[in-house]
Amino acid sequence: MSRYIFLFDLDSTITRQEILPTIAKEVGVYEQMRRMTESSMKGEVPFKQSFLQRVELLKQIPVSKVQDIVSHIKLNEHLVEFIEDNKSRSYIVTGNLDVWIDGLMMKLGMEKNVFSSKALVENDYVQEVFNIVDKDAVIRQMILPFVAVGDGNNDAEMIEAAEIGIGFGGVRTIAPSVLACATHIVYQEDKLVDFLHKLV
Fold first, then answer.
1. Which CATH code is given to the segment(s) 5-199?
2. What is the pLDDT of residue 1?
3. What is the C-alpha to C-alpha distance for residues 129 and 4, in angstroms, rounded to an integer?
């Protein structure tokens, strides 16, 4: 039996698209969103500050519409299969809002195995964010050794603390902070999944 817990970032790790920029295209604020996302990924702006700014851009979209957009986001299917086969010891750790990704988590069967940011919703619109996921706090809860997979600056602490920390560059450029601390760097989904299978 595997001795590891597996922690996965969501955007550009499980998904083949960045979720917030994909939503932003729908309301014509893609360029603003892209710039904010890039500066957060590179660590130029603190994640919490950047995330709240990005949520503010998207507040005018009904939550039900966002959920519909997210339900059509392309996924790294082989990685999804690995997670589904190892559901009891896999967790998704994402800054995304629970109300936006709940449908996707249910589709993956991971609704009980997700750590995400949380928001208050009224009349189908986000009113305010009341909790932003703290990935550092999540990893402190882990008792068993864990494997962490991600690509962005806000994944660096999780990857550095992992016994096996994997920077995954299959979708977008891996953040320099992740490159600096990962034990492994992988650029192809099939190679990532092959490696994960060896750890089970």
1. 3.40.50.1000
2. 57
3. 32
